[in-house]
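Sequence in, structure out. Go.
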Amino acid sequence: MAYYLLFKNQPSARRLMASVPRLSRYTASNRMTDRDVLVRWGMVDESDPAHGTVLNPSEAQRRIASRAQMAKFLRRVGVRVAPRVNRDGLPTTFSRQYRIPIFDFVPIGCFRSDSAVDWTSSRISRIHDSFEEVPFDSDGQTRRATYLATRTLHALGLDFGLVSIGVSERGFLQVLDVSAAPILEGRLLELYREAVQRFVEREEAWQRMGPPDVTLGADVEIMLRNAQGKMVLASKYFPRKGRIGCDDRSVQFDGRRLPLMELRPAPDASPDGLVVHLRALMEEASETINRPGVEWRAGSAPFRPYCTGGHIHISGVPLCARLVRALDHYVGLPLMAVEDPVRAKWRRPKYGFLGAVRQKSHGGFEYRTPASFVCSQAATRAAFHLAHLVARHYRDLPLYDIYSPQLQFAFYEADRETLQPILLRNIDAIRAHPEYVHHRDAIEPLFAMIERGETWDETVDVRQEWGVPLRRAQGPRRAKVLAARS
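Output:
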């Protein structure tokens, strides 16, 4: 297994290659095998090789060649980008700026400056002396900046780079620029050297040990609807925390009235085990609510402006760019294909964008792109099985460039016709995988829906879809209690 670095004559690339013993200079595509890795450092007049893994492919780098075109694209997919000039025609200024280096989808450092750093005169590719390194969890703003940087790089289809973010006087975070060939000096060289070395070690370990053992979890959002069609607050029945709780989103941001119920089943190494845990929580929640007239609604957006998601938790496998892209291809796309297209557009791109991932304190991460799939039992079981198969075998699955403007716009517009060729190729790739035999019964119903052009029903009562009792059963003990009260 070889690791190549493709670059022109940048000193940064030379310093990186000198500091990572396994990196060697790329000279010809016929030397690449399927097991090899090519790291492209900036734009080079050389096509991507037909074999192997390419970090920062040429097409992705072309998306950032023009800052104006990059900004136009990012805004279309829901990423706030700073204008070069304000309404008065003056250069836009910021009270604070961040420089966040990322490698293989993971932020590797965070630098912050409260000085007035000029960002409009040229592209940003270095970290100036006025910036100081700060922890990722310094405060909420720093965490949001890191999340925005990761989202931005993924939306562009890049594996690594330096993302610059500004904080406006009103506290809004806006992307300033993206560099796919940051200038490596001092601490930044050290961070990238360590990141590339970890990447090499992880690749070598996978070659030796094979697919990892994976554990799945979930948190699934549901909204409540009364007989008059009005929203019922989940906080009327449940606290924020616990296996059955409430999402933090509140009515008019008051922090008290919480409309979204969250089911947080215990994790399991088996996708079907997770389904069992989820059903048990549904039955427990139904006992607490105990009102047949209160329907449970899921899908994309039961009540505007509130949206519901089906977040799949994955642990046991390291988070990396290729894994997230595989989840987008083989979990996010097929579940989008069976959503109600009108409601899906209400939800995206603010919620459920491609590559929506959050790292968790337990060491794993949650994939947040899908809508709340529990409005369909078949989609729920298929989602868990697809996530399990992809997390263990994502290296075996082909990936296409679904991050081009045309395809990303199609995803956010729920344009299944444009995405259908990729959906069908992905279905064929999953069916051809040797492990599919263990997941076929769970996944085929979803694939059949896609092939027939069907969508799930977001007006269904989730309890009825899952066969959950609508009212608490009156056992002998409960009957005695009721008799005594009367």
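Check: The two ends are 77 Å apart (CA to CA). The longest helix spans residues 186-209.
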